[in-house]
Amino acid sequence: MTIYQETLNADFDAAAPGYAATAPGTDAATPDADAELTGMVECVSITEVTHNVRSFELFAPWMTRIDFEPGQYVTVRIPELECERCYSIASAPFGTNTFTLTVKRVDGGAVSTYLHDVLRVGDRVHVDGPYGLFSTSFHPAAKHLFVSGGSGLSPIMSMVRSLLARSAGAPTDIVLIHNAATPADIIFRPELEQLAEVPGVSVVTMCSRDSAAEVWAGRRGRITREALAEVVPEVADRETFVCGPGDYMAAVRVMLDELGVLGSRVHEESFVFATSPAERLAKRAQFAESEASTGTAPGRAAKAVGPPSGCGSSPLRRFGIDFTGSGKHVECDPETTVLDAAVEAGMVFPSSCEEGMCGTCKSVLVSGEVEMNHAGGIRPKEIAAGKFLPCCSTPLSDLVVER
């Protein structure tokens, strides 16, 4: 066993059920089995990872242990900015009441800039979660392939750390491929070098170019199908997790498909959010106006369409939605989300991702039925308690919503 494995195992053993880590100078949290990671958390440490990446250790004082699956994320809200972003949890779920977010500073990114330039130890931010289905817990396998670009390494390291800590002597078969722009941009570099020494773990780090202070001696260039086939000859036999910029993941997806990997065995994480409700509504109005004036939608060939056999043509049925908090009543058809209908009616509705991922628009469904197609932004127990995400829910009946 390597020193790296011994450290992971020690962390895992220390965090056995009943153990509660607390920040220095604080009292132990009161045990609460039903506590959720939703509220103001305190920053207890900040670590420089690279020139533009920092890790923030956050402390939830009302919890004894934070339950999350490796690879999941939280929505971080900065009250002063009145905006939020989703960030993957980089630490493994060792059962403590602290967790770590590793964040890259993005030029023009309001939240990442705030975290890097303003947040200090002792300050607090609001988090909500954990969310997401991008986890080895939901897709167990004997062999894993992890492919990451840039800060996409964060959720993957959470999964790798967890797999190694929980292996308990079981055979390990992990291949991790990481792409960075330069050696100076390699996130968790010392840990990746330690991982490469662990039996059963293969680590390949690729850099596109040299940094000012270092000529890269490892594998160079961007990831290619040929590199994938060389590094992972049995790639089709592995459960694969990919995280990175959108174009990076799209390219890797094509490579994996060409190498015969089943789409069902490829899992991706992305926080590239959809257009806002207002933007979608504007496009829909433009679409309808064009269709009405030309008899066809933009880019479509005109064709005669008669009513379905045995029935007359009729507009979509509209359902009524009553919002108890504001007293508003809106109408919504079965092809429009509850969020879009509310925004179209002039309501101000908190939302961020608009695709069932971040949980910002979460509301209580007092009565009625919806079809909800979320992307992990709501917990099963919240659904059981009558909550739903308006951004990805369409009505199946009249609704009463607590909002």
Tell me what you see in this structure:
With 403 residues, the protein is of the alpha/beta class. It contains 9 helices and 19 strands. The strands form 4 sheets. Strands 4-3-6-1-2-5 form a 6-stranded antiparallel β-sheet, covered by helices on one side. A 6-stranded parallel β-sheet has the order 10-9-8-7-11-12, with helices on both faces. A hairpin with a 5-residue loop joins β13 (319-323) and β14. α1 (3-14) crosses α3 (153-165) and α7 (277-294) packs across α8. The radius of gyration is 24 Å and the shape is globular. It starts with a helix and ends with a strand. Residues 14-33 and 296-314 have low confidence and may be disordered.
Strand order of the largest sheet: 4-3-6-1-2-5
Structural class designation: alpha/beta
Report the β-strand fraction as a percent range: 25-35%
Question: In whole angstroms, how far apart are the ends?
Answer: 54 Å
Could you provide a short overview of the structure?
With 403 residues, the protein is of the alpha/beta class. It has helices at 3-14, 110-117, 153-165, 189-195, 225-231, 246-258, 277-294, 338-344, 380-384, and strands at 37-50, 53-59, 73-78, 83-88, 98-104, 124-131, 144-149, 174-180, 201-207, 219-220, 239-243, 266-269, 319-323, 329-332, 363-367, 370-372, 387-388, 393-395, 399-402.
